[in-house]
Amino acid sequence: MTSENPTRPAVRRLRADRARQVADVLRHQVLGDVYRGGQLPHEEQLAEEFGASRNTVREALDLLRAEGLVRRVPGSGTLVVAEKLPHGLTRLQGLAETLHEHGEVTNEVRAFGPVRAPGPVARRLGLPEGGDVLYVERVRRLGGLPLSLDLTYLAPDLGERLDPADLVDRDVFRLIEEAAGQPLGAADITLEAVNADAHSATVLEVPRGAALLMLERLTTLADGRPVDLEYVRFRGDRITMQGRLLRDLS
């Protein structure tokens, strides 16, 4: 007869649950460029490393394959085929500044001009109800592949100083700072998962309903004035958010 510690409930895990746990760790390694050669260890080696069965490891690899991160090649094993680009959450930077080590970010300006500010936008920017803002819609690309769809509302006094031609190869943050004559100070962000609607799917070249990362960002100048409200949809298969958090309970 086996004895059990009544204060420590037994952990019963289905193989599918265990496969997801293995996939989570492997995903981090794949995205973190651990497998620089582009090839994952053999299933037997992974099974030993994770203390799991080969079937569990195989299911974990199937999950990563379904995400488009790896593929199986007969005679070669499992290869890394997709890279997610790291987008930091610890510094206030534009996309080109964030990804400068990975290549040149280019912008397709799809809309540029004054529009009547929706009530919630006016309130977030501290503007009078019914006033105008500069509305900008851009598709951001790296190496020709679309990364994000950016919808931007700018304070009118700064927006009127911008030229759409400048937005083709420059981050809007730099242009705002030049127009304002002072640096940006901080931003409040909200990050959530959304599904691609018909418009977003077409522009970002993903299936309708595909997973996107939606970033809402309200950016202020150094003096605290809010000037830029953005809604950025990132391709979930190309961008990963990274940051470092400090615990402070004081």
Key descriptive features of the protein:
250 residues; alpha+beta; six-stranded antiparallel sheet; two-stranded antiparallel sheet; 10 strands; elongated
Q: Report the order of strands and helices.
A: HHHEEEHEHEEHHEHEEE
CA-CA gap between termini = 50 Å
Radius of gyration (CA) equals 23 Å
Report the principal-axis shape.
elongated
Number of strands: 10
| Mean pLDDT across every amino acid position | 86
Structural class determined from secondary elements: alpha+beta
Strand order of the largest sheet: 4-5-6-9-8-7
The number of helical segments is 8
* Range of helix content: 25-40%
Largest sheet: 6 strands, antiparallel
Strand content: 25-35%
Low confidence ranges: none
Please sum up the structure shown:
Helix content is 28%, strand content 33%. By secondary structure, it is α+β, with helices and mostly antiparallel strands. The model has no long low-confidence stretch (mean pLDDT 86).
List the helices and strands and how they pair.
Blueprint: H1 15-31, H2 43-50, H3 54-66, E1 70-73, E2 77-80, E3 85-88, H4 95-98, E4 105-116, H5 119-125, E5 132-142, E6 145-154, H6 156-159, H7 172-180, E7 184-195, H8 198-204, E8 211-221, E9 226-235, E10 239-242
